[in-house]
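Researcher: I'd like a structural prediction for the single chain below. Treat it as a standalone chain; there are no partners to consider.
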Amino acid sequence: MSVWNVELNQARALHQQGRLPEARAIFEKVLRAQPGNLPVIQALAVIAGQSRQFERAVALFDQALEVDARNAATHCNRGLALHELKRWAEALASYDRAIALKADYAVAYFNRGNTLEQLGQPQAALASYDRAIAHHPGFAQAHYNRGVLLQALGEWDAALASYDHAIALQAGFAQAHYNRGLVLYALGRWTAALASYDRAIALEPRHAAAYSNRGVVLGLLHQSEAALDSLNRAIAIEPDLAGAYFNCGHALANLKQYTASLASFDRAMALGSDGAGLHGSRRHVKMQLCDWRDYPLERRELEARLSRHEPASPPFHTLVMSDSAALQRLAAESWVTHQHPTPASVPARVKHPRRDRLRIGYFSADFHAHATLYLMVRLFELHDLASFEIALFSFGPDRRDALRTRVKAACSRFYDVSQQSDAEIARLARDLQIDIAVDLKGLTQFSRPGIFAHRAAPIQVSYLGYPGTVGADFMDYLIADRTLIPPGHERFYREKVLFMPDSYQVNDSERVIADTVFSRAELGLPPTGFVFCCFNNNFKITPDTFDVWMRILRRVDGSTLWLFQDNALAADNLRREAASRGADPDRLAFAPLMPLPLHLARHRAADLFLDTLPYNAHTTASDALWAGLPVLTHAGESFAGRVAASLLQAIGLPELITSSDGDYEERAVHLATHPARLAMLKDKLRQQRLASPLFDTQRFTKHLETGYRIVYDRYQADLPLEHITIPPLNTP
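Model: Treating it as a single chain, here is the predicted structure.
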């Protein structure tokens, strides 16, 4: 064996051991002695690439090609170096030359696919991956990269199939299991996603991102404590993982650990997180705490981001930020475009055969003891099942409570679809030939817009759960009324509006109010004095609303403001804010959570309900009116800011609707200081409670069914979508 062969063997051994500088030195020594030695030039080029000296690598590959221009491997490796230098077109040319020399060169096709992705040619990249797989069916990495590209294109089912192929070929492919979890999450198949993340972690115990996304899925499965544990594991592994802090902020908020949630969101921002909705979610947590530090500045910054079409906030959080219906539409459209893009392939609308008995599908995560179902349960019981087949599609938890039992008994068919993907749920609805799909979640927590993006029914309607436009072209109608959306305001809504003749809000006319008569002492109220109350969620209280409330308190001697207590920190902050406005903090009282019949009963201890703006009382307003307590509202511009006005119009108390802070303040003070006037209002409410349309569930049901029939007949007649006004029932 010659001395140079000994040197080459030693260099190759060092190269295999990863001792690159030592190997390079020997190869260079040999090359000086044998300038045209092709294997040595190629080895030095590879070492240059491994050392990230890509310009040198290209020069060495060029030198190798001067020796042998028909070496396919050299062209392919040259392409890799050019790819790293982001010289995409040159890299592509190198791969094409390699393939021209070796038609079945699977690796060259694979690398070519990677470069075509960078050139923004996804379909050509997919074709290149397919050629790589055709020539080498066992190429697990090619199946994986194909899945990554399909995932980026939103072709979830095809991406899932590619990951499954990669895993079948290489069971220990941790990243394929992880990405498979991402796709299953996007499809709404959360239990299956959890299993994929668990497998990725089993294969790679320090896979921080898998722990982080596992935490997100556990949160969606209503396992909040387990979610937080998983997220904390992610952070322990990778302390600077911005996404884990972002996800942790949401998990902590779900557990009502708002201070810790705020700290997590702050850490995510400090680490440069660009998570969709981060700024709005952080601000919403501060509103839950009634922490109004930097409120004007943060509001302006968030509005600016939304104006730039950034998905800076979940749309629900914008409802309490601004009364601008235009901004709310912009926020919804930006969010849906970013978070819920229309699938690559959507089935065409199918016109089912005309039938007398319409098939209506209601979709929700809240078919249990929840505010939405408290309002709607009687509607389901009153639907005319001879004329309408009612199917409920539940993608939320089964809490096995009395309200779920009641609603299951009321409908024609009940489907638990919590373990199915958006596409699978939509396919089920289409197979059942649902005529009208009614989304009860909109853009709230645990919503599933993807079901409707996949076109669950030829007619799709948004109702009740989300007080505003969903901002998506796949929603056809929004159920509202003329108080919520006055003439000229239709432009703020992406959907066509189905106008109910009374209030849009359905109510259960059989809700039980407990017979319990609480003493003021039992409720934490002073023995005497006027009691203003607001049982809205704390996040609806803005500094502007609170300014007005404190002026009212100061003007009404001995009065008390009785608020719902969501958390102790919010109560402390509100007391401090009261003091800063010159009001005695002891004049604030707080009401803890209580079972609904008892909660309704305690309204008797209040004298007047004060509403919030820009996000009104909704269910809380109808609770108060049902319990006989007048509600004073300030009607704004947006849907969320006009709900209480809608309810008051329907119950015949328009005199409690104001249009400015000043009018609102004066009306509150006048009613508190003129007991006879307030007594007249309460008496009027008592007389009209059951006589007015607001709590006439049967009347509401018939109006809604009329609306369904109108939009169905229009669709069957191939008429375009337009705003529809439902005619009122003839009354005796």
